[in-house]
Design a protein that fits this description.
Length: 256
């Protein structure tokens, strides 16, 4: 039995992956943005060991969540699942003055990775859209570029992949991988999404706990439990180090 933390698991793929792991007999800690969503989460997955609470849009709140997670650990695996999608019509700014999409999708998993004692396995939810991500580090906060919500989301999923690969390179004792769950009908994916919703939660749960040979590698990109090529720049150490340095500058917390 493994103890697994899943961020953003009040709904969608995070909740489905949590239920799947609970059904397999694992010890699962879920996470929701606020007390109301935590109550929803407890009702949706009554077998969860705990539901942590914290809004990932803010650096202080994410630090507090990291403290809760540290107290609720140690974990065998953490699935960095929480994200906001591609439908923000304008650049939303967080309490820290950052792009909301970047803060939730990239900076929060970075901070949690840095602050929560490293588990044996880390899984980062990416997307097929990451292949359209822009590896340019110059304007991560969209202060100078004209806002494009779809591109901001694709970029954020590219950076999640970079983060997964950077951690794989820096921390050889941790299995760190990225997952494209497919385009599935969650709140984010929308009703018309064509892929299989159940299958969309399988790969991240498998990478978190399975001893299959294919699940115990590191620095991989997976779709439906199969290795797939990632954006070539995600494997570039200079790009990885650039992202880690940018996140360290924003948070004062380093991944060494
Ligand atoms: N669905 C797809 O087709 C698809 C495709 C490729 C990749 N993905 C990736 O899969 C992952 C899960 O997506 P999903 O489709 O399950 O999306 P979803 O149904 O919208 O669920 C996202 C989860 O993240 C939580 N969340 C969002 N912002 C948060 C914040 N500031 N603080 C705390 N929690 C927050 C949401 O909480 P609330 O429920 O309270 O809003 C929700 O539980 C994401 O990383 C996404 O990028 C999804």
């Amino acid at each position: 039995m493994a103890r697994v933390l899943i961020t953003g698991s009040a709904d969608g793929l995070g909740l489905l992956a949590g239920r799947r792991l609970l059904d397999e007999g694992h010890d699962v800690v879920l996470h929701a943005r606020n007390d109301k969503r935590a109550a929803d989460t407890r009702a949706a997955a009554p077998g969860a060991a705990a539901v942590l609470v914290g809004d990932l849009a803010g650096i202080d709140d994410t630090r507090k969540l990291a403290e809760q997670a540290t107290a609720a650990g140690p974990f065998d695996a953490v699935i960095h699942n929480a994200a906001v999608g591609y439908r923000e019509r304008r650049r939303v700014v967080t309490v820290d003055g950052l792009s909301h999409v970047f803060a939730v999708n990239v900076l929060a998993p970075y901070l949690l990775t840095a602050l929560v004692p490293a588990p044996r396995r880390l899984v980062y939810l990416s997307s097929g859209m990451h292949r359209g991500g822009d590896p340019d580090l110059a304007d991560l906060q969209w202060e100078r570029k004209r806002w494009n919500g779809s591109q901001a989301y694709a970029d954020s999923k590219f950076w999640d992949t970079v983060l997964a690969f950077a951690v794989a390179r820096r921390w050889p004792s941790v299995l760190s991988n990225a997952v494209d769950p497919g385009w599935v009908a969650t709140k984010m994916g929308g009703r018309g999404a064509p892929d299989d919703l159940t299958e969309g939660a399988v790969t991240q749960a498998w990478l978190a706990v399975s001893d299959d040979e294919a699940a115990v590698g590191t620095g991989g990109f997976f779709y439906h439990r199969r290795s797939r090529p990632a954006h070539p720049a995600a494997g570039d150490p200079a790009v990885q180090d650039g992202l880690l340095a940018a996140c360290a500058a924003l948070t004062g917390v380093e991944i060494v």
